[in-house]
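agent> call fold_tool(seq_1)
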Amino acid sequence: MPAWAVYFLKAIVALIYLFILTKMIGKRQIRQLTYIEYIVGITLGSVAGESIMEQGEPIWYGIAAMTVFGLFPITMDFLSMKSKTARDFFEGKQTILIENGKILEDNLKKVRLTADDLMEQLRVQQVFRVADVEFAALETSGDLSLMLKSEQQPITPKILGIQVPAATQTHSVITDGAIIDKELAKAGFNRQWLQAQLESAGVSVEEVFFGQADQGKLVLDMYDDKLKAGYQGQQTQSQQQQQSQQQQSIQSAKPSQPGQQNQQAQPSQHPNQSSSSPQDLMQLAYLSLKQYQVDLELAAVTSKNKNDKHSCKQDAQLLQTLMDQLEPRLSR
């Protein structure tokens, strides 16, 4: 057999075995690697390359070596699931870097991070003040997890006692011009419904790159970007009521823009919105304005452009004026 044919067969065998081995190792090899996974990944590739190019040695020697390195992370994962001690030994523990707004310098040295590295990780998560952080820890994967202090956390409808419709799952019913019957059935529809929506949009399924069923509507993305086919289909009565309720709440709670007269949020007339009082909506508007003002003040401090600094400072002062006008209404 020619030499090139031997190398070709060795490469095919090694590639197939590596594919099988990586499937056995699992998806953990795809995410950010631990030290052991990183070493195993590099070694498997090196052993496979050496096995292919080595003359006079059968490919089975390389496969035996790859099996040893491949079985090690599998065994490590099995032991980690069975024992916390083994899990801590193989994967390590998280390291607390910030506690109650204070940086723990000793822990920072243990993980070999500088203050600049820590601030970079905080900025990536849109946090610019260490004092705003209640707790931050470096995970074993190398990611930084943090929790903001209560007063710095984003406003949610639950905090204000506002009821909003529950989110529903979307289903990808068309992919690459082909109908996915399984997803269509999960969404509670059939091909007749889908065909009716496509006809109302004036397109055929072959023209659709991606289609998604979302709350009784069909959202289409076309192969030809010049064709615009957006939301299609009719919603159920309950879905229409839920969306109407949500939109009215958002419009009522929308904060005033700088330069416009601040208006009192009007209560919705929908019968299902009795739990959202005008006082709650005004509170939401006030807190939103306060958050915008803090962002503008921060931008005025951090910006290097003088014009941007001046503009942000003026906008922050204008928002403060609007909040001063709104604050007496909150005490009624």
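agent> call fold_tool(seq_2)
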Amino acid sequence: MKRINLFKLNVFYILILCCLALIILNSCSLFQNYFFKESMVVFSQNPGLYQNGTQLFIEFSTDNPSDTIYYTTDGSEPTSGSNKYKTPIAINTDTTLRAKSYNGFASSLENKGKYKFVDSFPNYNIGEEGPSGGTIFYDKGNYTDGWRYLEAAPRENEGEDITWENSTWGNYKIAETSKEIGDGLSNTLTILDNLIADKEVNAASYCWNLEIEKDGIIFDDWFLPSVYELEEIWNVLNYQYPTYSSTEEIDYPALYWSSSNHATESAWGILFLNDEVLSSTERIGYTQKNQKNKLRAIRML
């Protein structure tokens, strides 16, 4: 009778089990997002412009109490060897904050922000070119929480053919984000925090990773606008887009993503089409998150 080499057989089965385990762990979003979940760090005050003489105390927080937060104030990338967050950080001079949370062997996506202190605040007009070469499209009337204006990125920096969320098996993760003006940044952070395991570029990550250089300055503080912020972009900048007399003439996808969630599998967007094709109420709508649409990033200043 032929003998079976039990050692080789056991090694074979062990290798098979290891391969199956790797496949399961790689595809199981429950494992990725809950058992080893690291939350993106939230800053208690927005980065932006503040009056000279102002003393800020920036607190960090995450959704997971077991996270450990590390940060830098010199613009360098934070690691587990950087400053460990314990108490609020006092800032009264120009400072770049970068922070990550760690949970076991995993680290979160980095949050970042530049705090700048000035003697007098700059003033802009709606429709005027902004510091990055984009266009000022919203003015809230006064500087609070680091900002007064919203600037849309130059049109040549728009994103195309990008989904809102790259989910499989209907496993969508974002439950709710705001529609309001001023909430696009917090919406974007919420989306990024929940979609950190996604490998493909999505609408929020495209904006978050966008860098635009103007006059030697790199602007990297972009985010995906809320639906009402997006509506303001259309109200001010609709002249930048083609006009059509009927929907039959449209030869490109015209829906632009917002960071406002509509339902489990859909998000709000706006069709950038002129009034001869759509009324203002028909322009705002929603679509499936896995559809590929356009986007235009914005920033606060």
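agent> summarizing second result for user.
Residues 24-36 have pLDDT under 50 and may be disordered. The helical segments are 6-27, 29-35, 184-194, 203-208, 227-237, 280-283.
agent> awaiting next instruction.
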